[in-house]
Amino acid sequence: MSARSAAHTALVRIASVFTTDVMVLGFGLVNTVLATRILGPSGRGVVVLATNTAMMVQTFATLGLPWAINYEAARSRTDRDLRRHVTWLMVRNIPLAIGIWAIAYALVAALRHTAALGNLAMPILALSASFSMLVLLRQLGTRYLGGLHDFKSRNAVSILGPGLVALCLIANLIVRVRLTPEFVLWLNVAGGVLAVTYAVVLLNRSHGVFPARYSANGTSNRDFRIYGAKFSAGLIAQVLNYRLDAFIVNAMMGVRHVGIYATSVSVSELLLLVPTAVNVVMYPTITAIRGDQRNRVTLLATGATMYGVGLLGIVWALLADPIIRVLFGSAFTESAGPARWLIPGMLAIGIVRVLCHAAAGAGHPEVLTYTTFAGLAFTIPLDLVLIPRIGVLGAALASTIAYSVSALMAVYLYGKVTDQNSLRVWSHLFRDPLVRAIRAVGARRYPGRPPGSEGETTG
User: Fold this and answer.
1) Measured between alpha carbons, how far is 143 from 145 in angstroms, rounded to an integer?
2) Is the pLDDT score of 446 beyond 70?
3) How confident is the model at residue 452 (pLDDT cuts 50, 70, 90)?
4) What percent of the chain has pLDDT over 70?
């Protein structure tokens, strides 16, 4: 496949995933706005603590299996026997993931009376545990479908859960059932059940992924676990980097400020739509291509992501105040300041997500691990220093600094694994998307001019 053909195919797939993620985000925004306006900062804080706990536990419990499945599925998507072998590997390792999940929630239950978890009552904790397991299983399904390049099915599964929750919350405006944190979590659990069930049906009917060991050419369970473990350490550090600050805010300032800060984070993460869509498509795409073409596609995608998030960030900085006031009400006006401080951090996360997962698709999952631990080394100390002094603004500033450190490390390590100087990598990130855009404009204005050879801007 030529570089132009590969880029076109990737863009089409990215557009498909991006469109779906916009819809998921739209449903999520409806869910957040309706629930937040009714629950208020304190109720919102309880839901955030429950869902953040769920996300952290499922990240520990997955052992990196979703990404190992994505990697193996992308390599074996044209071979039915190998697909079934990948399914066999997944099924064999799920009991281990469930065991880790159970131990983790037993530990959370023992610590629920601490300052960081003081608002997690047992019913909330039980719902959080259920939601965590469903997120784990859903992620296995969506990563498998993505690895098989069945992005249409992956998109359908992704949209089901948030769509169901949004419909129920809109219906609640009519029937007026009393909305509580427990009720919101119940809706998320129901959406998770629907998504997981649909993913299983799609995998079986469309791809025939019944588990069957294929010892001749299939990856060994040991190698499968090793790949997942390399990814797992980075994912654990990543979720700690992204979620731990909510627990620190709760311990230092209380659940109301968790609600304020979480709203800042939620609206700022709108900027991550672009890297999320690029990342979903790029990981299996990078796995399937080789050599210098892989490097060209990676740097072009990362640079374009950087520009996309940057432009959206400028718009968001101008509109943060009125949007938060209109959507969430006057009780959340304090969220606008932290949301602005998080914008540079979102741009840094965009670079990290695309570059590290492209490196993982090329067989280097350790890049994500080292990159995220570099950021985490700054997150906790900065939170402990800044939050007592400037409150939730401190949490936002600490996150942005930590994410920026991660981005610098990601570029440095990507340069190491591809034998490039990090300054050269930065040069291509800034230059290649502009050159490609100028060529595209020139091709439209002067259609008779022969196009330049692909990949001349990246060596």
Assistant:
1) 5
2) no
3) very low
4) 84
- Residue 458 has a pLDDT of 41
Give residue 444's pLDDT band: very low, low, confident or very high (50, 70, 90): low
State the greatest distance between any 2 C-alpha atoms of the chain, in Å, as a whole number. 71
CA distance 438 to 421: 26
Q: Are 32 and 332 in contact (CB under 8 A)?
A: no
**Cα distance between residue 322 and residue 330, in whole Å:** 10
Tokens standing for 240? 């700690």
Upper half-sphere CA count for residue 193 (Cβ side, 13 Å): 8
Strand stretches in 307-445, DSSP E: none
pLDDT of residue 454: 42
Axis-axis angle for helices 80-110, 221-253 (nearest 10): 30
Q: What is the pLDDT of residues 109-131, one digit of tens each?
A: 888 888 777 667 899 999 999 99
pLDDT at 101: 94
Whole-prediction pTM: 0.69
What CA dihedral angle connects 33, 38, 39 and 45, to 10 degrees?
A: 20
Phi-psi category of residue 145: left, alpha or beta, with phi > 0 → left and psi -120 to 50 → alpha: alpha
For residue 458, the one-letter residue type is T
Residues 6+ apart with CB under 8 A from 335: 260, 261, 263, 264, 267, 324, 328
Dihedral of CA atoms 235, 152, 310, 420 in degrees, nearest 10, equals 60
In order, the DSSP letters of 72-113 are HHHHHTT-HHHHHHHHHHHHHHHHHHHHHHHHHHHHHHHTTT
